[in-house]
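Lesson 9: reading folded outputs for more than one chain in a single document. The general rule is that every protein is listed as its sequence immediately followed by its structure tokens, and records are never interleaved. Here is the first one.
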Amino acid sequence: MKALPLLVPLALLSAPSVIGAQETGTLLTRRPATVDGTSKAATRRTMQQVAICTVKTSPGRVEVALNTPVGGEDSTYMRLMSSLADGDCLVGLAELRMPPVVMRGALFEAAYDRAFGRSGPTDFKAVPAINYLAPYSAEISSEAANTIALAQFGDCVSRADGSNARKLMATSPESTAELAAISDLAPRFAACIPQGRTISFSRSVARGAIAEGLYRLSRAAAGQSQ
């Protein structure tokens, strides 16, 4: 099976990256939510802390979920992600509504931080190409195609500038440092997107994609299985 080009529709990249807290419980939703009086910075940081807690308490389950092929609403992937989004790490929080793509990115970032912190590798020239299609069958849904395309984009950016990709992971969401790190990486974006396409990136989706690429490349560089 030949590599999937980044020409796959990347509508996910322009989706708002807002997480809201409402009522009680947890909900993965296709539609991002906001809460009156809650800033985007606060909601993104809440998601980050939930992801850090989840990776700390359930690293094995997170690893299984992140390596499970993305599918539809009733897929094994969604069941795994929903179970992760309904644990003790939400104690004391109101309902947390999040798009799966945002939660996925936050979990990859937390997994990277747990495994490598601020001392992970930044040179991936010797790392062979990662086949992001490998977990999937011949028929790929549009959701899976978007997920693969995001992973390929994050891989491409991280290979091109591992130092600034790692620097991005050390910044706080919605901070000036995050914006500066994304700006430093931005010149790499064009080369990682097919010519002739214009894509509007939300910070959280771009950050999550880069987190996945950086995590997988760093594991490969360290001789760990994908």
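And here is the second record, again sequence then tokens.
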Amino acid sequence: METLNCRGMTCPQPVIETKNTLLNRPDIQEIKVLVDNPAAAQNVERFLGMQGFTVTIQGAEPEWAVIGKRLAPDQAPGPAEKDEAESPQKTLIFISRETLGRGDDALGTLLMLNFLRTLKELGKSLWRLVFVNGGVKLTIEGAETLPVLKELEGEGVSILVCGTCLNHFGLLEQKKCGQTTNMLDIVTSLQVADKVINL
């Protein structure tokens, strides 16, 4: 089993180290990645799953071991990003704050809720929502926007939520929709998208 010590690394370095190791050693059948924060554990788990590994996470605060075992070729799912890259007209919404616009926070909160409710009007082109910084607070338990986001997710819209941001605000355990993600996934998403709307 290949072991990577990614303790002390910030997002997205653990995922990048894991990715580079698999690129340099495509014959690896089992890999263990040691990390020291839960967001990194979830990000590495997601990445290995996309690469055709079954994944388990062992340990607890302050250290986790993400263990991946490669599936047989006929069991492995196709690469998600490749499939997405072949789909036409993808609109990505990049949300970095809780409110829409500046001037009055109460109004901005209402506008953000109405904006998210209206996203269905984009139809099939609505591909992915990315939440960073204060925007991650829209995805947590008790947020008025949560039912709207869950409905969009249920209809096939991909939702990525920055793990570093969740950790910063102490909200990782309160996130109730979307996938915890890292900056590598976010940058890749921006590259793949046909249109990006920044809020």
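What the second record shows: Residues 80-85 have pLDDT under 50 and may be disordered.
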